[in-house]
Amino acid sequence: MIPHHAESLVHEAPDDTRVVLVNGARQAGKSTLTRLATNRQRSVLRLLDDPTTLRAAKDDPTGFVEHDSLMVIDEIQLVPELLQPIKVSVDLDPTPGRYLLTGSSRILAMRTLPDALPGRMEVIELWPFSQGEMHGAPDRFVDAAFRHGPGIDHSSELRRRDYSTHGETAS
Predict the structure, then answer these.
(1) Quick one: 19 exposed, middle or buried, by C-beta within 10 A (0-12, 13-18, 19+)?
(2) Which of 40, 71, 116, 122 is spaced 20 to 30 Å from 91 by Cα?
(3) Which domains does the chain have, with CATH numbers?
(4) Maximal C-alpha separation, the chain
């Protein structure tokens, strides 16, 4: 398995934040990353991709989010009605590490996002794997771009069309 640079952020964020949202594109590794982050602690996992779980969340959003440990809710954008009960829950109990959410759409732009939830939530943007992550090396492109500016010159053995399949060989 390829480790994400954001893995440490997902591990640490619940230590001091009530709600953590791992936001990113489909297939970027949000679900896997949150499961890895919660393996070491007692948690409740809710997968909204499961039809039965999805129905339970829609039928009783308030009851769905009640718990006494970290709750991981995967694909929160499927039931945005859960955000208001989460806000109420963390207002009543401000203990850090209450909810770890994943979302594959721009959930922060949703009209249903309660106004006050962003102040109670840390957002971790998860991007697709970088070249450095795929090869187990530091990412140096941004540093080089700032150091060399417009004069940056990089040559590669790969051609433009090779980059579309380059990540497939790293796994």
Answers:
(1) buried
(2) 40
(3) 7-126 (3.40.50.300), 131-169 (no CATH)
(4) 58
